[in-house]
Amino acid sequence: MTNNFYNKLAEETNKYAALSQRKAGTADNNWEGTNVEKIQAFIGILIYMGLVDLPEIEDYFQGDFCVCPIVRQVMTLKRFKKLGQYLHLSDEEERPDQQSADFDIQYKARPALDLMDKFTQAYIPGCGLAVDEAMIGFKGRFFSETVSTWKAN
Predict the structure, then answer these.
(1) What is the C-alpha to C-alpha distance for residues 25 and 12, in angstroms, rounded to an integer?
(2) What is the C-alpha to C-alpha distance for residues 125 and 120, in angstroms, rounded to an integer?
């Protein structure tokens, strides 16, 4: 299923880039068609960026004292930005009209949502799953009877 997802993502990204260039009436000389490997690399970089927090996207591609040499080895900043510009999950030319009965408000994200459904069917967490309270942000206050008894003593 995931290979089909990456194939679809590469195909729709290429289609959307061509469609955008046709609509604009000019060719994007910086765009070069993509494939499954480039899409996987792009998503891998996004995951890496979620783990290694730097202030600007450009910081991941710096050459001076590069903190992230693996990112620079996989893709250039210009290529990363172009993939982000044209990344698409669904075919724009087949999008149903908003007035039609089969209109889906989540049409653009439907392939990703379908993939997430597959994951939830494949993985069912067991009783050994724990959530650490530090993982969930909480800015409220905690009031209970024990707090008032602490203050009374």
Answers:
(1) 20
(2) 9
d(CA 55, CA 42): 19
**Per-domain residue ranges for the chain?**
2-92+105-152
- Opening angle at CA 32, ends 115 and 48, nearest 5: 50
- For residue 100, give both structure tokens: 């039609």
Q: Residue 116 and residue 112: Cα distance in Å, rounded?
A: 6
pLDDT in tens for each of the 153 residues of the chain? 467 889 989 999 999 999 888 888 888 888 999 999 999 999 999 999 998 888 889 888 887 666 678 888 899 999 999 999 999 888 777 777 777 777 777 777 777 777 777 777 777 777 676 666 666 666 666 655 554 555 555
The position carrying tokens 């993502």 is 9
